[in-house]
Design goal:
Helices cover 24% and strands 22% of the residues. The chain is built from 4 helices and 8 strands, in the order βαββαββββαβα. The chain is globular, with a radius of gyration of 15 Å. Mean pLDDT is 90; it is low at 7-23. The structure holds zinc ion.
């Protein structure tokens, strides 16, 4: 198995300016994806208790993707290989990351862990955890960053304003599954 992380991508939120693509498709893929879009998750060690800002953000994001016009579906399962969790780094530029295990051929995602940074002072602002949750869940099924425009996968978006999957994010999900 190989390990892949978009931590570096998350860290580079404010540092990289993507080259405008020639494609009309305003989304990107990490490469590997799931065999299908029916996914499950469990809560990580830091999110065992309902009602925290970060867990609530993930809950909203799970509902947003489940209710979106895509086939993406997340269901809680206690024994899931996939985990939603938080971490703590005091850094106002560092919102989250998603780590994967992928198949040897790098075609298939075998499991994911999505993290939201509880040490980011912006994380308690309205809609920010929901926005980060939707972004990290986008990574969990194979979307990559797309660094321009009104997209939840744009890591330079205003997270207080763009916090649910947008049309290009939905188009990306529907192109994958
Ligand atoms: Zn990201």
């Amino acid at each position: 198995m190989k390990y892949k992380s978009v931590l570096a991508g998350a860290l580079s939120c404010l540092l990289i300016t993507a080259t405008a693509p020639s494609s009309a498709n305003a989304y990107g893929f990490i490469g590997p994806k799931w065999p299908d879009s029916t996914l499950d998750y469990k809560w990580g060690s830091n999110l065992q208790t309902p009602g925290s800002v970060i867990r609530d953000g993930f809950v909203s994001a799970l509902q947003d993707w489940n209710n979106s016009p895509t086939t993406i579906s997340y269901t809680y399962r206690e024994t899931s290989k996939n985990t939603l969790n938080s971490y703590y780094v005091v850094d106002s530029n560092h919102y989250g990351n998603t780590a994967y295990t992928v198949s040897d051929t790098e075609v298939t995602i075998l499991d994911f862990t999505c993290y939201i940074n509880s040490g980011n002072p912006n994380i308690t602002k309205a809609n920010v955890t929901r926005s980060v949750g939707n972004h990290e869940l986008g990574h969990s099924f194979g979307l990559d960053h797309f660094e321009t425009g009104t997209r939840v996968m744009n890591s330079k978006r205003d997270r207080t304003q763009i916090y649910v999957p947008q049309q290009d994010d939905i188009n990306g999900a529907n192109a994958l599954y």
